[in-house]
Amino acid sequence: MPHLNLRQRSVLDLITKGLHNGEIAKQLGLSERTIKWYVSQLLMLFDASNRTELVGMLSSDEALHRAVHES
């Protein structure tokens, strides 16, 4: 399981809740471009092709799901 910093976990948590980049940016007070960068980094870290695959990986791995949702 990749080590995620707090911001990565926050972005990933909001992705799993179905938010789009603009919504995530607004909620976290960041630019949409920054969120796109975080999403790209997360896809690379998890070796996922897209957001749907990333979310599927999280839902199929309970330990990973807990790590993402820890505060």
Task: Please characterize this protein's 3D structure.
- This protein is mainly α and 71 residues long.
- The protein has one domain: Arc Repressor Mutant, subunit A (Orthogonal Bundle).
- Helix content is 72%, strand content 0%.
- It has 5 helices and no strands.
- The chain has helices at 6-16, 21-28, 32-45, 51-60, 62-69.
- Helix 2 crosses helix 3.
- 14% of the residues are buried.
- The model has no long low-confidence stretch (mean pLDDT 88).
Q: Point out poorly predicted stretches.
A: none
CATH homologous superfamily - what is it?
Answer: Winged helix-like DNA-binding domain superfamily/Winged helix DNA-binding domain
Mean pLDDT level: 88
Q: How far apart are the first and last residues' alpha carbons, in Å?
A: 17 Å
Q: How do the helices and strands follow one another from N- to C-terminus?
A: HHHHH
Total strand count, please?
Answer: 0
Taken together, the total number of domains comes to 1
Q: Assign an overall shape.
A: globular
CATH topology: Arc Repressor Mutant, subunit A
Q: Could you tell me the strand content as a percent range?
A: under 5%
Mind telling me the CATH class? Mainly Alpha
Secondary-structure-based class equals mainly alpha
What helical percentage do the residues reach? over 70%
CATH architecture: Orthogonal Bundle
Report the major sheet.
none
Radius of gyration, CA atoms, in whole angstroms:
11 Å
The total of helices stands at 5
